[in-house]
Amino acid sequence: MYWRKKKIFILISLLLICVCLFSGYYLKITIQKANSYSMSTKAFLYLQKALNIMEKKFIYKDTIDWDSIKKEVYKKAEGSVLTSDTYPAIQLARSLIKENHGFFASPSQMELLEKEEFRFEPPIYRLLEKNVAYLSLFTFPSTSDEADQAYNKQVQTAIRALDSSNVDKWIIDLRKNQGGNMWAMLLGLGPLLDKECIGFFIRNNGEKIPWKHKKNTVKQGNSCCLKSSLPPYQLKNTPKIAVLIGNNTASSGEAVAVAFSGQKNVRFFGQHTSGFANATYPFFLSDGACLLLPVMHFSNRLGQIFYTNMAPDEVINANEATNSLKDPTIEAAIDWLCNF
Questions:
Q1: How confident is the model at residue 11 (pLDDT cuts 50, 70, 90)?
Q2: What letters, b where the CB count within 10 A reaches 16 and e where it falls short, cover 316-329?
Q3: What distance in Å separates the CA atoms of residue 154 and residue 281, rounded to the nearest whole number?
Q4: Are 214 and 220 in contact (CB under 8 A)?
Q5: Are 325 and 331 contacting, i.e. CB atoms less than 8 angstroms apart?
Q6: Which residues, 6 or more positions from 10, have their beta carbon under 8 angstroms from its beta carbon?
Q7: 143, 117 contact by CB (below 8 A)
Q8: What is the rounded CA–CA span in Å between residue 140 and residue 120?
Q9: Do residues 178 and 253 touch, judged by C-beta distance below 8 A?
Q10: Residues 121, 127, 129, 135, CA torsion sign
């Protein structure tokens, strides 16, 4: 027993010595690299961390020549002493990898974002000709659970009011929806969604994470994202739905469109969406700065992945959404709802 304990002690000691030697070697190499760009070790490690996050997590990471990118970015950061001195280099990296959905924000910018009170337009709804229900959802930059619940209540109040007219034909207008909190939007629209699984996030390794709507709750996988404070509501009639999309339908607005994609009795009208059909995730750096990156693609319930934008079933050449009966996209939607 004594020799066994001694052997274990010797092995642990050797392991610790190896770790110390490796750490010392790594530190020496890091200092050499930092010196080669006339950077402080702190600034170099900070920039290295940001680049490593991009290389490992960015949704299009496998299409990028990272050695070339890093060479140019480190050159941009030459002379950096403080972590903040590397910010222009991080922005350059975002530009070089063509990252245009997320952002990089300094600690002071993050403080302003957290304090900013976002205002959002409530949904517009009304009954159109031929007993067609019209519901338009705008951008919803959620800031709290309280705001999410208020938004969900507004959307469901609109749906219940329209459904009281015994409608079975619906127009969901997403042409002015540039994103925000997809879960609040999907929760509000729950009565119009016909399946529990309404879409997926797709990781770079192919892993699928389902979007679920059930019993007035929306989930990402098995994790609850938002639960309604209202009782569940069921439509009086099986809905036939026209979804309107366009160039300003972006991010979470595209997620809502994807949730309806593949549902029976649904057709899309308008123009191609913005092309931000992916999920973003915030990565916080050591000084409090935030690197927001797109990390997962959207897929509809049938497994169709949207790598860029989403195309309508019927392209309508109209400039912008007008929310009026003279709107060619609304006219086309009404024609399909009532005649096909």
A1: low
A2: bebeebeeeeebeb
A3: 27
A4: no
A5: yes
A6: none
A7: yes
A8: 6
A9: yes
A10: positive
Give the C-alpha separation, 12 to 19, whole Å.
Answer: 10
In the chain the first and final C-alpha atoms are separated, in Å, by 84
Cα→Cα distances 66→75, 83, 147, 188, Å: 14, 21, 41, 42
Q: Give pTM, 2 decimals.
A: 0.87
**Structure-block tokens of residue 279:** 């999920």
Judge whether 264 and 279 are in contact, CB under 8 Å.
no
Beta-sheet pairing, 132-136 with 169-173:
parallel
What is the architecture, at CATH level 2, of domain 124-280+293-339? Alpha-Beta Complex (3.90)
Retrieve residue 62's tokens: 């496998």
Higher pLDDT, residue 181 or 8: 181
Q: What is the DSSP letter of 131?
A: G
Contact indicator for 73, 39 with CB cutoff of 8 Å: no
pLDDT (0 to 100) of residue 227: 95
* Per-residue pLDDT tens digits for 262-284: 999 999 999 999 999 999 999 99
Residues 246 and 333: their CA atoms lie apart, in Å, by 14
Long-range contacts of range 34-37, CB-CB < 8 Å, 24 or more positions apart?
Answer: 37/74, 37/75, 37/77, 37/78, 37/79, 37/80
Kindly list the domain boundaries of the chain, sorted by start residue: 26-99, 124-280+293-339
Summarised one tens digit per residue, pLDDT across range 221-260 is 999 999 999 999 999 999 999 999 999 999 999 999 999 9
The two tokens of residue 269 are 């009208």
